[in-house]
Amino acid sequence: MIDLYYWTTPNGHKITLFLEEVGLPYTIVPINIGKGDQFQPEFLKIAPNNRIPAIVDRAPADGGEPISVFESGAILLYLADKVGQLIPKEGRGRTEVLQWLFWQMGGLGPMAGQNHHFSHYAPEKIPYAINRYVNETGRLYAVLDKRLRDREFVAGEYSIADIAIYPWIVPYEQQSQKLEDFPQLQRWFEAIKARPATIRAYEKAAAFRDQVLNTEAARQLLFNQSADNVQR
């Protein structure tokens, strides 16, 4: 039913986590971002921002033609509404989920991503940039830890907000963070890690883990794009 254009990044993991959680049938279409698959014309028709993940729903709720969706947050929201799970349909509960979904999309993801880049991928180690993003990642961890002091999951019940956030916490060591510094976050993290759907999702990712992104060729593809690459 769902074609998932996927690679083993935190944003890619979000969608396998969701699909495994709700049991929606899907097929993985690998997009090897280290080899430039994201720039193939066929993929750009689905994901014009040349980023994974993206999906094609071949059985949309309206019964019409297949629909494609790109951007991980939009995909999670689309799929949650499609199956009526992992987000309330209306009211305050829905607002709670959405604000934490957008917190991840606009905060944790970009900041942790820059943390990864300057700490592990940038050819020049710039102390200011590394400290800036390591500290901001830690601040966001603290925000999440505080949020979880009086609730099991970020919006009360397990939701697409938790699914969006979790894969960005998985590489906490690469982000120079210690989970023991954030006890409520650590409790939340271990609970999600133990979910059967999480285990299945990361087992599927294992098939692609021998692919190395931190090579000169991969870095050129991933980090040296400009407007010229889009316009030509």
From TrEMBL:
PROSITE patterns per record: GST_CTER, GST_NTER
Annotated GST N-terminal domain residues: 1-87
Chain ranges of the GST C-terminal domain: 90-213
CDD domains found in the cross-reference section: GST_C_YfcG_like, GST_N_Ure2p_like
InterPro entries: Glutathione-S-Trfase_C-like, Glutathione-S-Trfase_C_sf, Glutathione_S-Trfase, Glutathione_S-Trfase_N, GST_C, Thioredoxin-like_sf
Similarity remark: Belongs to the GST superfamily.
Protein name per its UniProtKB record: Thiol:disulfide oxidoreductase
